[in-house]
Design goal:
The protein has 11 helices and 5 strands; from the N terminus they run ααβααβαβαβαβαααα. α2 (about 45-60) crosses α8 and α10 (about 250-260) crosses α11 (about 260-275). It has helices at about 20-40, 45-60, 70-80, 80-85, 115-125, 145-155, 170-175, 195-215, 230-245, 250-260, 260-275; strands spanning about 65, 95, 130-135, 160, 175-180. α7 links the parallel β4 (about 160) and β5. Strands 2-1-3-4-5 form a 5-stranded parallel β-sheet, sandwiched between helices. It is α/β, with parallel strands linked by helices.
Amino acid sequence: MSFQKITEQESLYSDLDRMSVRELLEGINQEDRKVAAAVGAEIPKIERLVTLLVERMRQGGRLFYIGAGTSGRLGVLDASEIPPTYGMPDTLVIGLIAGGDRALRHPVEAAEDDPEKAWEELSKYHIQPIDTLVGIAASGTTPYVIGALRKARSMGVLTASISCNPDSPVAQEAEIAIEPVVGPEFVTGSTRMKSGTAQKMVLNMISTSTMIRLGRVKGNRMVNMQLTNQKLVDRGVRMIMEELGLAYEPARELLSLHGSVREAIDSYHREWRLNQ
């Protein structure tokens, strides 16, 4: 099948500027309903990526995301949420965006057009074959991503891509090509919409399932989360209460003593066994 830029095709909706607010919202929502099904069709590929990724991370490998524009921002967002959510170091999952941190808030002209730049940036992290690189590009044509995937794959790095057009140039460079094809956008070509939602869903699936397999969740609880504010402290206390059957204050004291839900629970169980 030849490459088709479905993300740039004409919207299925006409005269958006004449629609009422309700009509606009219903149209957007109708299109968004297609996203979960498109992502669901890619689960076998996502499963393969996560399985290989977990194996590499258990051996000390890291996960890198690269992208430009919305795609790059989504990768940086997912990477930035791993330390507070799962208590992992910020050196384990790393997001790079074309144009650097400035591009998170402001467009950086032509940053995505340099096929060599991403690999230069990755080289600063001393990327190794044990690492994994995920290139994110809604269109599947971003030179910044294509160049990095090509070089990384030639170096033995596990490579994957997330794009919303079938058989794209980005997909051709990746060992595992994840392609949730969501169709034309509600606003023609606005890939921050359905395409961005699909990419975010896939990233959530990759990072969440990986962290669970690495033992960063107990039951369904984020027992390794960083206790960075009162809301999270309170959540941690209630986890301990439910797990150990303690009242609020003893649970809070235990959490304060050990600094993490997992360590508080494990320590309590160790002490209990010693006293038996």
